[in-house]
């Protein structure tokens, strides 16, 4: 029986098992050393602003070691750097990078399906042009906050085609680099092509962008050799609210909402609508869905205690929004609250 067809209790147990497995692998000596070696060779910090759609996993699609790409998620990839919490988080992130003498590459993404518009971005009502235009608006905000010279933070607009999990890089000239259109034997010339497309990109950032594109080229070639129906169709049965969900690298399992928007109720309501539609169309069983809230912490004591309060607030808030918007769906809601140790990626469920 496929995972999405199993009873909700078994699916929830599987999900927390996946979290334990991810933490064990993240903290293993081999993974830790691989991460350290990668950062020594490619010091540019990489952040990805992306949709809550669980199909979009930049680390997997670029074959990048775990813990390198810092994700920021929201409905449709909709962000505004004027949002107080998001602005503070990004500013702190960039300041930490600058103190280490590093630069940052910000992948500002939208997504679409070339095979069927209905598999595109529900947050933008499947309007790819609107989603793309929004990413360019975010890019302009990055330039306003961190400088248009791109000396420290380079914002790069990227499409993500979910059928083949291929990147589409957008240059200021209007040109694009569609990884799905490249042959694997074109990899040796990628740096030259990227340098031509992005002439103002600092050399180190360019060096560190190349392995992402090379990894995506290899990943796309691999996706073409396996069945993809379950990966490309919406079958989400989990709503995640907060931060600390890197372990959910299985396509179409979860809708992940970052705690950034001043109006968190809107993405929660829309995520609940997607879950309801999945049930109505028979893509997932109608026996229930998971609402999981999480907040990360770095230090024990006060930092963890504050994370627990944040996570409980988020779960209570989201449960209330869903109960008000869709009471029948709320009756099938299984609520779990957790905190994440950022150093080890260990996810700990909090008692009810």
UniProtKB/TrEMBL annotation:
InterPro entries: CsoSCA_cat (IPR048539). Residues 50-172 form the Carboxysome Shell Carbonic Anhydrase catalytic domain. It holds the Pfam family CsoSCA_cat. This is Carboxysome Shell Carbonic Anhydrase catalytic domain-containing protein. It comes from Pseudothauera nasutitermitis. The lineage of its organism: Bacteria, Pseudomonadati, Pseudomonadota, Betaproteobacteria, Rhodocyclales.
């Amino acid at each position: 029986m496929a995972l999405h067809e199993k009873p909700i209790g078994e699916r929830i147990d599987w999900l927390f098992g996946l979290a334990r497995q991810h933490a064990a692998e993240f903290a293993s000596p081999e993974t830790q050393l691989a991460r350290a070696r990668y950062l020594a060779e490619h010091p540019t910090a990489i952040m990805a602003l992306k949709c809550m759609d669980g199909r979009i996993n930049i680390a997997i699609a670029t074959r990048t070691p775990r813990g390198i790409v810092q994700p920021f998620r929201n409905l449709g990839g909709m962000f505004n750097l004027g949002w107080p919490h998001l602005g503070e988080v990004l500013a702190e992130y960039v300041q930490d990078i600058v103190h280490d003498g590093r630069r940052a590459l910000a992948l500002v993404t939208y997504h679409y399906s070339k095979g069927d518009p209905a598999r595109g971005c529900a947050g933008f009502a499947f309007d790819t042009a609107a989603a793309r235009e929004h990413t360019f608006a975010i890019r302009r905000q990055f330039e306003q906050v961190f400088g248009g010279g791109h000396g420290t933070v380079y914002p790069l607009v990227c499409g993500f085609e979910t059928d083949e999990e291929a990147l589409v890089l957008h240059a200021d000239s209007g040109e694009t680099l569609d990884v799905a259109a490249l042959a694997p034997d074109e990899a040796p010339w990628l740096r030259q092509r990227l340098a031509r497309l992005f002439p103002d990109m600092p050399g180190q950032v360019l060096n560190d962008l190349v392995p992402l594109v090379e990894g995506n080229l290899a990943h796309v070639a691999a996706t073409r050799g396996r069945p993809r129906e379950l990966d490309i169709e919406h079958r989400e049965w989990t709503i995640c609210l907060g931060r600390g969900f890197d372990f959910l690298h299985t396509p179409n399992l979860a809708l992940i909402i970052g705690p950034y928007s001043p109006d968190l109720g809107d993405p929660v309501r829309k995520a609940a609508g997607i879950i309801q539609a999945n049930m109505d169309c028979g893509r997932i069983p109608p026996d229930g869905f998971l609402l999981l809230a999480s907040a990360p912490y770095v230090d024990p004591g006060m930092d963890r205690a504050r994370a627990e309060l944040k996570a409980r607030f988020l779960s209570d808030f989201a449960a209330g929004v869903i109960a008000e918007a869709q009471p029948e769906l709320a009756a099938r809601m299984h609520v779990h609250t957790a905190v994440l140790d950022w150093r080890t990626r260990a996810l700990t469920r909090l008692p009810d």
